[in-house]
Design goal:
Strand order of the largest sheet: 19-14-13-22-23-35-34-31
Number of strands: 35
Largest sheet: 8 strands, mixed
CATH class of one domain: Alpha Beta
CATH architecture of one domain: 3-Layer(aba) Sandwich
Number of helices: 16
Length: 651
């Protein structure tokens, strides 16, 4: 049995295939020990029945955000010891004199300069001597260093000094060593140094977590989802932790595209609202990638699915700021203590507001396994309502409206602000809380339709289950685009493709099972930024077209240069035939309940998602209920049921 496990901030999701039926479960996360929730979810399936686990984890991300990584040494060319602290000239808020720098992951006293220097043309100006290697060893031995990052100038082109030092350190020290020529063999020192340092900082944490989890899952192949939508082996993830920082959300985007394509849709704005945050992404026919991701102030220059995150989830805390303005998030109640209605917390959250408004039914949460305390939710919102001078219901409605504004702003950031008209896209909603806000967001955004899958609350885990292994390889090449350039490009790609194939063969795949895509990072000579273009015979025209789309202009007669070549390789897994599990019930109608709206309380029907039939239409207002999520269909919307119980909502 193949099982996917996605560990979130509030809940851990389990998805597995039994025959041709996709089955799911959801249970509270265990932040004190994330592996415990994983084991709690897998145990009922019988560990002896499981052959493979694909795991989306927040261990690396949380360790970074909470600055709980390993004490790391940063080793670089002498004179560049401050590169992580100087960074780039760009300011996050240009006119704010009180901006705080992100908390460091490496301390100045743990930075070490090595007397070595390779020039950009490969000339060894200062060879790396045995004396310098010993001096570096002495430095590391006298400190409590748990990991080391090595980033020498021009090592992306000439890695000899990095590999020489790594070999010497590994033979004398029992700590993981990350070198930039393996992690990110590309130019731009700060981004390369930052990415390598993040990997070194997180690797001991991830390695320790995976060691203990693999020990409990003895005999089971453990795969870890990475940020580009594919997976790594547990062994690879133990040394390449930087690839896991967007592990779960990446699975959600790829799962959305997979599901929507089966229904004939491929232009999506994905909306993933969970307990802690909301992740949005624009998908125009294929997964979008970026190499300009900023992780809490530090650039992460690896290909990651281009996801925009805001602190607006079911657990986001509502409060009045110093000026008396209602705010929601980014602080979250998380899994512990959780929203007030869970029985531990005391602060008002978005989940408490939805419960008070009647959009969540207290006896239906988690399929009835977890009864919510509506009185406690009202008590949490009451002080806020009193300070605002409104009723508890009006305050709850205000919380929802403010949360919606935050999420609409994120949706516009990935669509309108990038030149895409949301009306041309389908809003694909998933995550446990997304269905409660889908109609309001669709109205505000002006999308043509909303799609909510039956497995909305565990869709990220479904994406993990269906994902193949994917690896990205790159090499900075610095090539001017001239008439006879194609043969040279093909030769360089041939070398990189062989490197990619070899890496996939080491984890058990044959060349005939692989497919790869080639890309070029191109720019006009003199530009400080590049565009990534699929490599085809007309790559020059493609560059001009993309430049026009992104920036509104292009220069057909201006000289071009290729900065970096890229290969993305993946395995062709056997196609999985699946259908959604439903409970056999005789009636879809569960009675009526009252929901508070801007027009006061309305009596609305409660409908079981399992009882719906393909082609049926449900008119709002109505609540469609499933064990792990609820969809609030607003009065001016109607929902048509498509294949696999997918709700398609339109006004």
């Amino acid at each position: 049995m193949r099982v996917a496990v996605d560990t979130g901030g509030t809940f851990t999701d389990i998805v597995y295939l039994e025959g041709e039926v996709i089955k799911a479960n959801k249970l509270p996360s265990t932040p004190f020990d994330p592996a415990q929730a994983v084991l709690n979810g897998l145990s009922p399936l019988g560990l002896n029945n499981i052959t493979e686990v694909i795991h989306g984890t927040t261990v690396g991300t949380n360790a970074f955000l909470e600055r709980k990584g390993a004490r790391t040494a940063f080793i670089t060319t002498a004179g560049f010891e401050d590169i992580l602290f100087i960074g780039r000239q760009a300011r996050s808020r240009l006119y704010d004199f009180n901006v705080d720098n992100p908390l460091p992951i490496v301390f100045p006293e743990d930075c070490f300069g090595v007397k070595e220097r390779v020039l950009g043309d490969g000339t060894f100006l200062i060879p790396l001597s045995e004396e310098e290697i010993n001096r570096c060893l002495a430095f590391l031995k006298k400190t409590d260093i748990k990991s080391a990052a090595i980033c020498f100038i021009h090592a992306y082109l000439y890695p000899h000094h990095e590999t020489l030092l790594k070999k010497a350190l590994k033979s004398n020290l029992n700590i993981p060593i990350s070198i930039s020529s393996e992690i990110l063999p590309e130019f731009r020192e700060f981004e390369r140094a930052s990415t390598t340092a993040i990997n070194a900082y997180l690797t001991p944490v991830m390695a320790n977590y995976l060691f203990h989890l693999q020990k409990e899952l003895s005999g089971i192949s453990l795969r870890i989802q990475q940020s580009n939508g594919g997976w790594l082996t547990a062994k690879e993830a133990s040394t390449q932790a930087v690839h896991t920082v967007l592990s779960g959300p990446a699975g959600g985007v790829s799962g959305s595209l997979f599901w929507a394509q089966r229904l004939g849709e491929k232009r999506l704005i994905t909306f993933d609202m969970g307990g802690t945050s909301t992740d949005v992404c624009l998908v125009d026919g294929r997964l979008p990638f970026t190499r300009e991701y900023i992780l809490d102030g530090f650039p992460l220059s690896l290909p990651v699915i281009d996801i925009h995150t805001v602190g607006a989830g079911g657990g986001s805390i509502a409060y009045l700021d110093a000026g008396g303005v209602l705010k929601v998030g980014p602080q979250s109640a998380g899994a512990d203590p959780g929203p007030a209605c869970y029985g531990k917390g005391q602060q008002p959250t978005v989940t408490d507001a939805n419960l008070v408004l009647g959009r969540i039914l207290p006896d239906k949460f988690l399929g009835g396994r977890m009864r919510l305390d509506i009185d406690r939710a009202r008590q949490a919102i009451c002080p806020l309502a009193r300070d605002m001078g409104v009723s508890v219901e009006e305050a709850a409605l205000g919380i929802i409206e403010v949360a919606n504004v935050n999420m609409v702003r994120a949706l516009r950031a990935v669509s309108l602000e990038r030149g895409f008209d949301p009306h041309d896209f389908t809003l694909f909603c998933f995550g446990g809380a997304a269905g409660l806000h889908a109609c309001a967001l669709a109205r505000e955004l002006g999308v043509k339709q909303v799609m909510v899958p039956k497995l909305a609350s565990v869709l990220s885990a479904l994406g993990l289950l269906l994902s193949p292994p994917i690896k990205d390889f790159s090499r900075t090449v610095w090539l001017p685009v001239v008439k006879d350039i194609r043969n040279k490009i093909k030769a360089m790609f041939a070398d990189l493709i062989q490197q990619a194939i070899k890496a996939m063969e080491t984890i058990g795949f044959n060349q005939q099972d692989l497919q790869w895509d080639c890309f070029l990072d191109m720019r006009y000579q003199g530009q400080g930024y590049e565009l990534t273009i699929p490599y085809t015979e007309d790559f020059v025209d493609s560059f001009h077209t993309q430049h026009q789309q992104h920036f509104g202009h292009f220069y057909p007669d201006f000289p071009l240069e290729i900065v970096t070549i890229r290969v993305r390789i993946k395995a062709n897994l056997d196609e999985i035939l699946w259908k959604v599990e439903t409970q056999k019930i005789e009636r879809e109608y569960l009675g009526k309940t009252k929901v508070y709206t801007s027009h006061g309380r309305q009596e609305v029907p409660m409908i079981s998602w399992d009882g719906l039939k393909t082609g049926e239409v449900v008119k709002g207002p109505a609540l469609v209920i499933e064990p792990f999520t609820t969809v609030w269909i607003e009065p001016d919307f109607k929902a048509e049921i498509k294949d696999n119980y997918t709700l398609v909502l339109k006004q």
